[in-house]
Amino acid sequence: MTTVTVLGLGPMGHALAAAFTAADHPTTVWNRTPGKENGLDAAVAATTAEAITASPLVIVCVRDYAVARSILDTDALKGRTLVNLSGGSPEQARAMATWAADHGIDYLDGVIMATTDAIGGPDAALFFSGPADVYETHRSTLAALGENSLHVGDSPGRAAAFDASLQDMLWTSMSGVIHMLALAKAEGIAAADIAAHAKALLGFFPAMIDLLAGQVATANYSGDAGTLHATAATMDHILDAIRAQNLDNGVLAAARAEVQRAIDAGHGEDGFARLAAR
Fold it and tell me: Is this model's pTM higher than 0.85 or not?
């Protein structure tokens, strides 16, 4: 079994190390603060250089790219494979890949689409990007982290781009959920009552995502399922309700302004997917 090193033992780093040991990969760990290795069947290194030289495959999972770069020993890493699971922007991933190449280090960038308790199980999804041959060399070892590991492309920033795009949807949607609950409360509707209807309403989302993705892919922004003129009218009704309750309207007002820009550009009869056109 391939020997693995994990640098960084925060909650996620600890979960990664535990998954490797559970899959019988001899694992060496390092953390800036001692004691975080509790409960792990792993060798504990005193320095990052010692940890790195223990394995051909080095996983770093810390706060961000800057911290990752600050703790890595480039001399020790030379000729090894570094997998960065710290998370960041696509541009940071590309810069990190260039830095690694300049130091003779094979590099994969990765993002974790899972909670700590899912790591190592069937529900853990991880995206990796970087040279396909490097990924293939370590694919079976990285599979210990989750059954849904996927190489998404040779460009080192591609995994981070997947993550940013999906997180964009997630947190914009979560903001909408919170605002829904605030508006419902202001109108005297119990949170549990509106939540039940919200879940039913979201049942159409998968089909809507497919529709919008198809239109963006083909640049065919048909308004058959609803025009931007109709969307603008609906948004105006909702904004009236929000403002009547003196609630913050920033998120929806920004979306309404984006719709208006498309209408002003002559696309009022197009569908919502038009907003993704550049």
Answer: yes
